[in-house]
Automatic annotation (TrEMBL):
Coiled coil: none annotated. Keywords: Membrane, Transmembrane, Transmembrane helix. InterPro entries: PilO, Transl_elong_EF1B/ribsomal_bS6. The keyword rRNA-binding does not apply. The gene is pilO. The keyword Cell inner membrane does not apply. This is Type 4a pilus biogenesis protein PilO.
Amino acid sequence: MTMDDLRNLDPKDAGNWPAQVQISSFVLVLVLVIAGGYFYLWSSQMEELTAAKATEEQLKIDYLDKKKRAINLAEYKQQLLEIQQSFGALLKQLPNRSEMETLLTEINQAGVGRGLLFELFKPGVEVKTAEFVEGPIAIKVTGSYHDLAAFVSDIAQLSRIVILTDVKLIGAKDQLLTMEATIKTYRALDEAEIQAIQQAEAEARKKKK
């Protein structure tokens, strides 16, 4: 069938079209209907289906994660108890305010006992947390490498928690070294400090409400 034959077909008399043309027209109409249905109806449903599948996968992941946590809950509780006990034991090692002077004296004597020359021993501003108070001490001492190393070892072996940070070594005269560092000491909160922290926390909760 030529193009002229197709042009001469009467749309109102489709029943008398040649069988080949009728089949082709039917297939074309079917394709157009399916395409229209997809774009106007099924496409949105397909997007919803894709989103639902993604949500399903995420829910499966969340379920497995929560299931794993539930299975290990007893183990987690035991670990938390051990951490709390260890932390409590560390807190008991902290001196109170009245004992801090003794600790500072021990630190100073540790350096003097090793023959070190203190050029600076300056306590800084304390930093308070809900559990303890951190007190930095800026030091500058001069001595031999061996004596400085022994001093650091002595600090580490004190009965109280003392940490040496920000260490800098500078060459001095006569084969000596000058060490600049910050010694961090820790003490327990006294009753007045505990009450002040609790009051501040209570006021903060009221403001949130």
